[in-house]
Amino acid sequence: MKYSKSATLKFAVQKSLPVLFGYLFLGSAFGIMLYKAGYNWIWAIIISIIVYAGSGQFLLVSLISAKANLPTVALMTFFINTRHMFYGLSYIEKFKAGGWRYPFMIFTLTDETYSVNSSIITIPTNVDEPKARFLIGELDHVYWIIGSALGSLLSQIVPIDFTGIDFSMTALFLVVMVEQWRSTCDHTPALVGLGVSLVCLLIFGSSNFLIPSMIGITVALTLLRGTMEKRKEAGHADV
Question: Can you give the pTM of this predicted structure?
């Protein structure tokens, strides 16, 4: 089947639009924090290109300000981003289909990019799926880089108090979750995620619940995978 490059690009842009608006604010928040720590917009771009770790970049600013050593920075970044290893497992086969794009698709798989990928239920016949997923990740990365540079530059030229701008990360998660909820009839993953997270929050506390939550969610969804696939097949059969 011959795919349309323009249709594939258009599909990727449409799917990544929610992330665009979120990342302009989130990236700007990072750029502002980095500038206040004594680093200009060039460093904001370099870090966003090489690190691209979202919350890990915010943590990096704090660690740099505290003059933390390299092993500490590496260890903290590893723990912050451990969750990517868990939900990335579900996209190994889809990303491998992208051929040479595979490593880049792994690198750009942030929380928001994963949510966008998860919300894709049907793909037009003229859209190249592996390339579309690759473009979504790359577009999200570009959005973040632009936001980081804008935030740093704004801090230099606009005397505005940006307190509270980092709340846009929470807002973005809510928007993506609502979109994912509306795009599918099976809400099992979302309900499992919320349920397991709440239980782990009560047991481990707000400082230590993240990793246990990701492990619990991964185990629960693995056990429920067969049931969800049968339900999906039954739904297609009814249509």
Answer: 0.71
